[in-house]
Design brief:
- With 137 residues, this protein is an all-alpha fold.
- The chain has one domain.
- Helices cover 54% and strands 0% of the residues.
- The protein has five helices and no strands.
- It is globular and about 40 Å long.
- 26% of the residues are buried.
Length: 137
């Protein structure tokens, strides 16, 4: 479990603000690129929250949940998918990658960071929720 002394590993101050603006910029850039593809906004709306299905990993515990969540909320996967889409000139792969990147940007702009394996609310950006993960020992 994380303790209050471990909370110092969360980002704070200007770096936290900049990371949230960076998330908003990712959301804006991915959405703009999606618009430029003249893709279906219905598909965008339908798939926008799909990465959050990774939260089901928390049914197996915080460590498995964090691994599942982080795997679905890093930019590596959608960037690779987008590169494959560009290489093969596949519009659907590009659209899926952009929707995924927009979701990640949205989460970061709201302050939802990558998870630690200690508790759902322990993220690299801050402690979210009202849980007692940072309770003193």
């Amino acid at each position: 479990m994380m303790t209050r002394s471990d909370a110092r590993f969360s980002v704070s101050g200007w770096p936290k603000i900049l990371l949230r603006f960076e998330g908003a910029a990712l959301l804006a850039a991915a959405s703009f690129a999606y618009w430029r593809l003249d893709a279906s906004w219905g598909l965008f709306a339908l798939l926008f929250l799909v990465p959050d299905l990774s939260l089901l990993g928390y049914l197996a515990g915080p460590r498995v949940g964090a691994i599942a969540y982080n795997a679905a909320h890093t930019t590596i996967g959608p960037l690779a998918l987008g590169a494959v889409g560009l290489f093969f000139d596949n519009a659907l792969l590009l659209q899926l990658a952009l929707i995924h990147l927009a979701h990640i940007g949205f989460d970061r702009a709201l302050g939802y960071g990558l998870k630690y394996g200690t508790a759902f609310g322990d993220t690299h950006l801050c402690r979210i929720g009202g849980g007692a993960s940072y309770a003193p020992r």
